[in-house]
Write a structure and sequence with these properties.
Layout (H helix, E strand, L loop, with lengths): L1 H12 L3 H11 L18 H12 L13 H7 L3 E10 L4 E9 L5 H11 L5 E3 L4 H12 L4 E6 L17 E9 L4 E5 L6 E4 H9 L8 E3 L11 H17 L6 H5 L1
Antiparallel strand pairs: 1-2, 3-8, 4-5, 4-8, 5-6, 6-7
Helix pairs in contact: 1-2
């Protein structure tokens, strides 16, 4: 009955079919017996979707509904909107780029996740390493405790099919679920279902961008019974949004924005 549900939502909200379908799929409970992918969600904002998957996997639920937090609610709790406009021209490569950002802490996914998780009362573990072997060992160890967030270059992910000239500039995060025996990994990347990727491709994408090389974030010792003060968290998210819009945390942001 999925199509009927989609059309009903379209009539109610005025959304296009694809948008309505994405919202419905994102709100379905999963019957997948695999505990590592049971709470995979599609999404729109990579870091917020990753946050949603992690919290839901560890049993955190919205106190006002008893259901997993929506992507929209988490987006607000994490600080909401932001602003950034940058244009660059690389003379040697004869390549110009234009970047428009609209998320709080858009330039620092690690700070974004760390800040909102601490608002929930959790302390994430963030790891980095220079070597590929050590990076794989860290990933395997982290996955023993559940899904984790992995920093990658989007342009190096085969399923993204991006032009080669974007390599080195596709700042992105995905959720890693588990590593299979056939040297592949299962990841979540905003899609309706998890994606299988070779360990070699994943390793290359993790190593490509120097400032986030082999970075991953995981949660440990998470209690699903933590009591959340939603009203206070909403107020804190709004205040943080206002604060950073007034006083950007990125050095030189005001001058670059002009």
């Amino acid at each position: 009955h999925l199509k009927q549900l989609v059309r009903a939502r379209m009539q109610e909200t005025g959304e296009r079919y694809a948008t309505a379908r994405r919202h419905l799929i994102g709100n379905f409970h999963h019957d997948n017996p695999d505990p590592t992918t049971r709470w995979h969600f599609p999404g729109n904002v990579p870091t917020t979707t990753a946050l949603r998957i992690l919290l839901t996997h560890y049993g955190v639920r919205a106190p006002h509904t008893g259901e997993p937090f929506s992507e929209a609610m988490l987006f607000g709790l994490a600080g909401g909107v932001g602003i950034g406009v940058f244009s660059f021209y690389y003379q040697k490569e004869d390549h110009a780029s234009f970047f428009l950002a609209g998320r709080h802490q858009w330039h620092d996914d690690a700070a974004y996740l760390d800040e909102v998780l601490q608002r929930f009362g959790f302390k994430p573990t963030i790891q980095e390493t220079a070597g590929a072997k050590a990076a794989e060992q860290q990933l395997r160890s982290a996955l023993n405790g559940g899904p984790c967030v992995v920093w990658v270059d989007m342009a190096e992910l085969p399923h993204r099919a991006m032009p080669k000239e974007f390599s080195g500039g596709g700042y992105h995060v995905v959720v890693a679920y588990h590593i299979n025996d056939d040297n592949t990994a299962l990841i979540g990347d905003l899609t309706d279902a998890p994606i299988s990727i070779s360990l070699a491709d994943l390793a290359r994408s993790r190593a490509r961008i120097k400032k986030q090389k082999h970075r991953l974030l995981s949660l440990t010792d998470v209690s699903a019974n933590v009591k959340l003060d939603l009203k206070s968290m909403v107020r804190s998210g709004l205040q943080r949004c206002h604060e950073v819009l007034q006083h950007p945390t990125l050095p030189g942001m005001k001058s670059n924005g002009k």
